[in-house]
Amino acid sequence: EAGVVQSPRYKIIEKKQPVAFWCNPISGHNTLYWYRQNLGQGPELLIRYENEEAVDDSQLPKDRFSAERLKGVDSTLKIQPAELGDSAVYLCASSLKGSAEAFFGQGTRLTVV
Amino acid sequence: GESVGLHLPTLSVQEGDNSIINCAYSNSASDYFIWYKQESGKGPQFIIDIRSNMDKRQGQRVTVLLNKTVKHLSLQIAATQPGDSAVYFCAENWDSGAGSYQLTFGKGTKLSVIP
């Protein structure tokens, strides 16, 4: 069974440009998480979905970040416009409803120059 | 919570020795505590978890201890191998309603195994 798939693996963009990340969770997983991980730190939650509903987006910088999970499966995280401080690894994870175990993708490493 | 500092605590152990990685948590309402292993360039990988009503759980070469009195969690790795070299994170998981889990990570520890 395929794990959580993210693309692209790496992205380099100039500041003020838009960027989007895509995540395909494990089949059947209702819960989907987007995390941001800065160098040398632990992952920090940006948004959590239950099916297509965003149940926790309190840490998402809504002035420039947006996310969607149409049909409750794949998800896209967008930044527009990107800033230098957005350089980080963006991780997607998924879990079954009622399960405490979350499975992570390999992440997208974003570099804003 | 917001992470502080840019430098991970580090632990160096000799191959074959036992490793103990410690973590302090903050939310006394957490239902589960989880240890994740993150290798360079990869996402975190689940190692072992423990329910809040337990104080010890063993897996293959790993043991997690939970002390709720002092809000402390530890991961013990027996006979540490070079492949164990990675960053280890503890995470708190609690049911925020109807089986929807909130997962929050603590600061990591970088484990280096000396051959």
- List the strand order in the largest sheet of chain B: 1-9-8-3-4
What shape does the CA trace of chain A take? Answer: globular
Helix run count of chain B: 0
Q: Work out the largest interface and the residue count of each chain.
A: A-B, 30 and 30 residues
Sequence of secondary-structure elements of chain A: EEEEEEEEEEE
Q: pLDDT under 50 segments of chain B (min length 5)?
A: 1-6
- End-to-end gap of chain B: 36 Å
Quick tags:
heterodimer; A: 113 residues; mainly beta; seven-stranded mixed sheet; four-stranded antiparallel sheet; 11 strands; B: 115 residues; five-stranded mixed sheet; 0% helix; 56% strand; globular; disordered N terminus
Architecture overview:
The complex is a heterodimer of chains A (113) and B (115). Chain A is an all-beta fold and 113 residues long. Chain A contains no helices and eleven strands. In chain A, strands 2, 4, 5, 6, 9, 10 and 11 form a seven-stranded mixed β-sheet that branches. In chain A, a hairpin with a 2-residue loop joins β5 (44-50) and β6 (53-56). In chain B, β8 and β9 (101-114) form a beta hairpin. The interface between A and B is medium-sized, with 30 and 30 residues.
Question: Can you give me a brief rundown of this structure?
Answer:
The complex is a heterodimer of chains A (113) and B (115). With 113 residues, chain A is mainly β.
Helices and strands in order:
The complex is a heterodimer of chains A (113) and B (115).
Chain A (H helix, E strand, L loop, with lengths): L4 E3 L2 E4 L5 E6 L6 E7 L6 E7 L2 E4 L8 E4 L6 E5 L8 E8 L7 E2 L3 E5 L1
Chain B lengths: L9 E5 L4 E6 L7 E7 L6 E7 L4 E3 L3 E6 L4 E6 L8 E10 L5 E14 L1
Parallel strand pairs in B: 1-9
Antiparallel strand pairs in B: 2-7, 3-4, 3-8, 5-6, 6-7, 8-9
